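Side project, low priority. Logging it here so it doesn't get lost.
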Amino acid sequence: MITITALMKASENHADDLAKVIKEYAPKFLKDPGCKMYKVVKRIDNPNLFLFYEQYENDEALKLHSSAPHFKEMFGAMKPFLDGKPEIYMYTEI
């Protein structure tokens, strides 16, 4: 199992725009083969910060995720609303 966390910051006054894009695309990832979890939350004390929490069965499922057309579409749609680059971390179970 591979777990990914990604922290993304919305640019000023664009948290709602970013949330709208995420809500549109997130359900598509849950249908991808090998995707076990795809959840996005935002911080209570700073609603411009979004945390993605994703789990995939294996490397193959992760590769399918990152090469899916909706992955590229989502990042293209999010780009105008992001402040800086996402912080992405990958984990494996111990």
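Brief comment: Strands lie at 2-9, 35-42, 49-56, 87-92.
Revisit when time allows.
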